[in-house]
């Protein structure tokens, strides 16, 4: 019996001994350690792939476009994002020693790092670096930043005292609100159209196409059919792609330059490190760890596994450790930080299959797709208005998710002050980034990011503001 299987068997015995709460197994066709037949496993795995695919490829698409990377390198990075997701999903589901949760948990490229990565890359290019040199810096700070999450995985029980729901929810709101600007620019034609200044940016065609995709995604998301809801983004992109082909605005010229197979080349773009560029990523890895705890808790619940007790905490710590290790692996493979995806929890609920062995099939599918550059090339050719129409909805959803986190906490006057000031500071530097134009690079990188500015403000206020300041006059008189 494999080591991970023995550990899971021991976990099951401990679960029975301590009689921890579980969801009724009758809701599941296959539990965590069950092995569904190959055909069923593959079919369920395809649904997980479809639910997570767009979320994995969208961040590299946006980053490569923002940095002005050529089509060949863009396709390569998209391919490596898929390959890394496959490898990292296998690590998370298979569990190697303390690394991994052992749950049916998918790994994919994180949206949380999108803004700071674009900020660091743009600043580097403005300073005279090439896009490839900017990528080396990005991968360097992402690699070393992953050790923040690796270390934090050992101290998860202390994090809730520092990062409260008000703090984490506010930062997630800032992430979503900040990304909306990126989505709207894509709807109008993308950074390239804006830079050309040839009248194509914001054209009627671009706005009509992106608006159609946006409306389609909205209507499908509201559908009562769960398959249509889960596939809303994919369907919206597919319809937009077909219309773009009819309009003749899809450029497939770069596909002929792609090799039939792409093999991973560690450190292909090199790796650089600058402390000023690194600082904003510290907070992001902390928040990613917190997000992973929530996602893994949800996965445990829908898989009929405990959501409290020693087995649960060991899985959570292993999952967050896996996130950190996987983000380091992603940087080595020339792609961006990986995190635990929440999309697959809906698939588990829908299919009734919580078996971690399905994750092995998911990992294999992603890895194979990553080795085929034609997949990355096809998506690299996706017109910006189509991408913008779908991602703007996604970015708005991130902001709403942050709002829900904040609303779940008790909103007294102290909490409202923390949210108000943090939003003002974070979005303020997003709206007026020129205030740091003449500042040293370290200050520019740290406070030029809306996430780091807003997040640091929220943490400091949560730490410094006295709790009794929220008491009402009636409470004081009583």
TrEMBL record:
Membrane topology of the entry: Multi-pass membrane protein
Top-level taxon in the UniProt lineage: Bacteria
Primary localization: membrane
UniProt-listed InterPro entries: NCS2, UacT-like, Xan_ur_permease
Transmembrane segments: 42-62, 74-91, 103-122, 134-155, 162-180, 200-220, 227-249, 269-287, 358-380, 386-407, 414-433, 445-465
GO molecular function annotations of the record: xanthine transmembrane transporter activity
Protein family (similarity comment): Belongs to the nucleobase:cation symporter-2 (NCS2) (TC 2.A.40) family.
Protein's name in the database: Purine permease
């Amino acid at each position: 019996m494999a080591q991970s299987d023995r550990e899971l068997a021991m976990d099951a015995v401990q679960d029975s001994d301590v009689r921890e709460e579980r969801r009724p197994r009758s809701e599941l066709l296959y539990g965590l350690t069950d092995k569904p037949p190959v055909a069923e496993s593959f079919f369920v795995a395809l649904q997980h792939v479809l639910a997570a695919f767009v979320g994995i490829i969208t961040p590299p698409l946006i980053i490569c476009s923002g940095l002005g990377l050529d089509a060949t390198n863009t396709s390569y990075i998209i391919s490596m994002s898929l390959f890394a997701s496959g490898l990292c999903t296998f690590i998370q589901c298979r569990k190697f020693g303390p690394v991994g949760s052992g749950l049916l948990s998918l790994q994919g490229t994180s949206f949380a790092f999108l803004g700071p990565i674009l900020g660091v890359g743009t600043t580097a290019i403005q300073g005279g670096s090439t896009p490839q040199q900017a990528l080396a810096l990005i991968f360097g700070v992402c690699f070393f930043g992953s050790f923040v999450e690796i270390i934090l995985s050992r101290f998860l029980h202390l994090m809730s005292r520092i990062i409260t729901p008000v703090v984490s929810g506010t930062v997630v709101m800032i992430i979503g609100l900040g990304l909306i600007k990126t989505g709207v620019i894509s709807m109008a034609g993308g950074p390239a159209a804006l830079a050309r200044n040839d009248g194509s940016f914001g054209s009627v065609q671009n706005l009509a196409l992106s608006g159609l995709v946006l409306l389609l995604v909205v209507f499908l998301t509201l559908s009562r059919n769960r398959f249509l809801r889960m596939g809303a983004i994919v369907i919206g992109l597919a319809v937009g792609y077909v219309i773009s082909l009819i309009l003749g605005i899809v450029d497939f010229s770069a596909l002929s330059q792609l090799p039939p197979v792409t093999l991973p080349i560690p450190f292909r773009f090199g790796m650089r490190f600058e402390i000023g560029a690194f600082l904003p990523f510290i907070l992001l890895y902390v928040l990613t760890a917190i997000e992973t705890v929530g996602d893994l808790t949800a996965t445990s619940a829908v898989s009929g596994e405990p959501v409290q007790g020693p087995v649960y905490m060991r899985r959570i710590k292993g999952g967050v450790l896996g996130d950190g290790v996987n983000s380091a692996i992603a940087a080595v493979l020339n792609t961006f930080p990986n995190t635990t995806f929440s999309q697959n929890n809906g698939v588990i609920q829908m299919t009734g299959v919580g078996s971690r062995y399905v994750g092995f099939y998911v990992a294999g599918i992603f890895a194979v797709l990553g080795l085929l550059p034609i997949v990355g090339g096809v998506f690299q050719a996706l017109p910006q208005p189509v991408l913008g129409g779908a991602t703007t909805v996604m970015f708005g959803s991130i902001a709403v998710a942050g709002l829900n986190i904040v609303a779940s906490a008790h909103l007294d006057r102290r909490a409202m002050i923390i949210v108000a000031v943090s939003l003002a500071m974070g979005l303020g530097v997003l709206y007026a980034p020129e205030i740091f134009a003449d500042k040293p690079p370290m200050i520019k990188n740290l406070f030029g990011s809306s996430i780091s500015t807003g997040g640091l403000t929220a943490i400091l206020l949560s730490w410094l503001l006295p709790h009794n300041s929220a008491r009402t006059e009636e409470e004081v008189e009583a």
